[in-house]
Amino acid sequence: MLAAPPALIKPISNLEMIVYLSVSDHAVSSVLLQETPEPNPVYFVSRTLQGPESRYQLVEKVVLALVHTARRLRHYFQSHRMIVRTDCPMAKILRKPELAGQLVTWTIELSQYDIHFENRRPLKAQLLADFINEFTTQHNTISDMWNLHVDGSSNQSGSGAGVILEGPTAFAIEQSIRFGFKASNNQAEYEALLAGLRLAREMGVKRITAWSDSKVVTEQVNDTYQIRDSVMLKYYQEVKKIKIEFEEVCIRYTPRIMNARADRLARLASQRKPGQLQSMVHQQIPQPSITKQECMGIENSSHNWMTPLVQYLTDGSLPQDAAAARKIKAHAAKYLLLGKELYRRGISTPMLKCLEDDQAKYVMREIHEGICGTHSGGRTMAAKVLRAGYYWPTITQDCQLFVKRCIPCQQHGPHLRQHADTLRHIIAPWPFAIWGMDLLGPFPLAKGQCKFLLVAVDYFTKWIEVEPLASITAHNVQKFTWKNIITRFGLPHALITNNGLQFANRRFNEFLAGLHIKHRVTSVEHPQTNGQAEAANKVILHELKRRLGSAKGEWAEKLPEILWAYRCTPQTTTKETPFQLTYGTDAMVPVEIGEPSFRRENFKESANEEALAVNLDLIDEIRDHAAIMTEACKRMMARKFNSKISPRQFYKNDLVWRVTGDARKDRQERKLAAN
């Protein structure tokens, strides 16, 4: 190449010219070629960047090189078709309606020429070896962090968004967007963020920091705030989808005063009248970003499961595969062709009309939820389809799937009482390590205006502590825990409660955390998680009903008697009394006084003290035996429980119907409320 340097040639008329561009930090250059058929240079152009031009973004420098070439070689551009070969996405950038500043002027200036853009191909000759600098790939630029400022505005005159996308240099794109739909403030903020991220994606940005003055939106996107509104959840999911397309996305909160430019653009968009001409480049979003795009599904329905049978019955044609041909011959004996309709010879019904997919869907829909439909089960529905005289190969499977997807059947179907998972039980490692706590009531007013009962039970010894309360507050629960549990039996390892406000209180949780007590809450609407406390409630409630009679207001005075009787009763699981497991010996009950027992008649104080000491030495063995009996009893219950379960498994993205609890049902609907 040095021995034969490239020489400029005279351009050939009606032959397109090829433009190669090159930029550096301090200069831009270009070369015009014509392929005849080898590429030969026509002219070279170069320019040194002056002042602020050296601070242009890479994209602006490339466009400047093309503009400078068009100005210097205007006669070539006016008489030839120009093909610009470059790795820079100039066509995408110059065609964007959101351009601002110098790029708008250059785009208008270049629009007078017949310019086309192509990706740069590998050069066959070293025609550009003496260029000032080789073109720098875009990857080096987009790896820098970009800044995005967004703001949404919603008022009576309309709603809109303002977007400012700033590059690593002074390059910036300002976008004012008007919404063609009504939007709330949070919805406008989400739309602004999505519009800004889409603009950055189209510009090829990979690393970006987005700034928004909406505390709610930024915290929700960063998974700090919980999303309860279904519309906001859809917007959150859209933001998560578009974030995957970037290498790094940081979404941060900024005060409104620091986001003034984007705020002005948003207000300008929301207050602009439709059709009004302004100098600012505007964009309109006709519908929310979370709206699913509708598309027409076009399917070729000419071929279905009946086609091979119809072809065989019509002209005897069979597929090339021998196995498939034998199968069609065997099945064809059950079918006959009457006119253009295919029928199957049935057993319950002599002639069954064969249906394709669309016809089968109509028949299932009409039989299941039509005027004469009863929303029956899958098997019954399949039998009704056959009885009506229709057939297709997957009739039972399709009917069962149709019933599962029927919303009214899910809303008002019978409750599945059969358990879907195995039984799991809680084992306490030592006495008073795990306590279950629950509330019982309301009861008739007793002394002290008490109408509630706070119940706590130890999972190991089954010891019960209760306290009548006039009001159920977190302070009363904390006071009961301190007085009846901690100061009497020591610090427990864990405390199990439900999700009531008196238990899920911040101060109560801080009180337990300060004493290193683990607070475990039960599953929502699943009281069996704290089954020990529920069982204690049942025992107390049933005994109160039997003892009170008509004097319902004396329930608080009967509690000591009930607790005494319960603590002296052997339990099914441990085979011991709670008193025995707690103190190492059985309590003296009134019957031993009325009809003196052996230990009552032969009572000696010295022998009694010695026996109590022996019992305390043997209490660990008694407790170990009680733990073994408890484990055996719970395993037996688990085996019996697990023998009746109906396993159900759910996987990610499965659609399920959540049962509506009694508290969430509409009271006005009463018996007609959905499940």
TrEMBL record:
Q: Which UniProt keywords apply?
A: Endonuclease, Hydrolase, Nuclease, Nucleotidyltransferase, RNA-directed DNA polymerase, Transferase
Q: Which InterPro entries match?
A: DNA/RNA_pol_sf (IPR043502), Integrase_cat-core (IPR001584), Integrase_H2C2 (IPR041588), RNaseH-like_sf (IPR012337), RNaseH_domain (IPR002156), RNaseH_sf (IPR036397), RT_RNaseH (IPR041373)
Q: What's a Gene Ontology MF term here?
A: nucleic acid binding
The source's domain of life comes to Eukaryota
GO biological process terms, alphabetically, are: DNA integration
Q: Where is the RNase H type-1 domain?
A: 142-271
Q: What positions does the domain Integrase catalytic occupy? A: 427-586
Tell me which PANTHER family the record gives.
Answer: RIBONUCLEASE H
What name does UniProt use for this protein? Answer: Uncharacterized protein LOC113855480
Q: Which organism is it from?
A: Abrus precatorius (Indian licorice)
Q: What is the lineage of its organism?
A: Eukaryota, Viridiplantae, Streptophyta, Embryophyta, Tracheophyta
